[in-house]
Amino acid sequence: MRLASIVREGRPVPAVVGDRGVAAVEDLAPQLPADAMALLDEKTWSEVTASAERASSEVFAPADNVVFTAPYRRPHKIWGIGLNYRDHAADLSETAPDQPASFIKGDHTIVGPDEPIVIPRQSERTTVEAELGIVIGRYCRNVSEADALDYVWGVTTILDQTAEDILRQNPRFLTRAKNFPTFFCFGPELVPMAEVLERFGALEDIEVSTVVNGDQHRTNTVANMTHRPASLISFHSQMMPLYPGDIISTGTPGAIVVADGDLVEAVIPGIGHLKSTVRAES
């Protein structure tokens, strides 16, 4: 069973997604918080799933009958990782760094599935990048790489954007190039680690593809990352605390320059399919 947020009467509400369809948490367990981030607590999520298992089928709607939005909009922080696939580093005539090339994105960048990704007027070369996202499930500080995945709630599908022409002016412009509104799209579902490991056995077997206008431009597997998820979690937890709902966007197999009207997708088989359209800022 997966966690998402859907739009109901103009407001986002957390929901579960399972074999029987989609059900709002407020219909399953009205006593629980109406906030998806609060449901990342292990005990609370267990209450949600138990309530869903007991619920009648009438509570569930087909996924095609609901509107998904971003799972949540106010994480403490979003870490992005640059040049983490060796092939992508080569695309940019760069060498994959021996330590993570990380940056922080503000929550103002967040949009959900099918919400437009906007090319800012300051950029003439904006790229879209499919990525696997790691969702932190509990407070995480100074953890070892061996223990790091114990702090993960689950994974999700991400479209991360870059004003590449701004970044090429000067590598110190990374924060500016990554932080325009709509430059972080994620969802529609958060997949619990238990399901991920049951399906794949290890995160390294997950495959990520960047797709534009139906063409699969670049695909790679997590095993080909320079810094794999457990290493990224441990590294960043030694820098600062990670909190429930924090997201680590683990890097892209390839960035694609986009234009007004393009349909862009992050495809991660067994995890999710995230799509959006691109429009130029007027």
TrEMBL record:
Domain Fumarylacetoacetase-like C-terminal intervals: 77-279
Pfam families found in the cross-reference section: FAA_hydrolase (PF01557)
Family: Belongs to the FAH family.
Protein name, as recorded: Fumarylacetoacetate (FAA) hydrolase
Protein origin, superkingdom: Bacteria
Keywords attached to this entry: Hydrolase, Metal-binding
GO BP terms in the entry: small molecule metabolic process
One of the record's GO molecular function terms: hydrolase activity
tRNA processing found in the keyword field: no
